[in-house]
Amino acid sequence: MTFIVTLVALLIERFFDWSHLRQWRWYTAYLQFVGNKLPGQPAYLVLGIAIAILLAVIALINFLLSDVLFGFVQLLFHLFIVLYALGPQNLWADTYTCINSMKKEDERTAKNKLTTSFGMPDDRYSQSLQRYLLNNIFIEANRRVFAVIFWYALLGPLGALLYRLLNLSSTTLPDEASAAVSHDARVVESLLDWVPARILTFVFALGGHFVQVFSIWLRKVGQGLASNESLLTESGFAAIGFEQEDKIPDDGSAERQAISLLDRVFIIILVIIAAGVLMA
Fold this sequence. Notes:
Shape: globular
Number of helices: 12
Oligomer: single chain
Low-confidence stretches: none
Strand content: under 5%
Number of strands: 0
Largest sheet: none
Helix content: over 70%
Number of domains: 1
Distance between the termini: 13 Å
Order of helices and strands: HHHHHHHHHHHH
């Protein structure tokens, strides 16, 4: 089941943009509701209770569906949860939208697209738009896709949902009262990112320039949680043949190389999952 769900989910995510169907506004309201019901309680307790309730509901539904139509309905349920947990915005669609906006040489439009798609800061951002986009392709490949797949493969639909709920808790809470919840969620999200980031960057080496990527991987693999993003960006750059200090072409070619790398990487990951299923 894990391989089938992962294969179908990746194919749908790669070739179709269904981001508009992944609505998570309800979760922000739900988390604030739980917080209001637990006034004065530590942020980690509010976050833990809110997520535990949702995971319990998913676990119950998963159990009840286990024997329906020989498990076929359960497979569809797993697929629904994984697809809903990906993103929330489609990585490939966002990347191509940003590439096209930068090719029009309209810096203001390009910045707006990068802000909408990848959360680019305001004019204080000092790097080139191309570099910012390229960095975030590699970071978001883990955050939007691979980490969800990893935790699904390990813990089933509960793992996929757990990762996305923590990610949303760390980034989308609007008011200052939720700052502590966001902080605690970011810490746990970084913990959940640590292993997937290291696996993904190792596969970067298999799908790109192996020697260059592997040397970076060996140097940074044992570092702490703060190194997750730098490991992803440095390994991603090396995998497509760039150094961090290299000038990024403004024709979108580097970004397209990054997308091609991700396509190869996810094919390799599918092969690894299939091999694991056959050996189990």
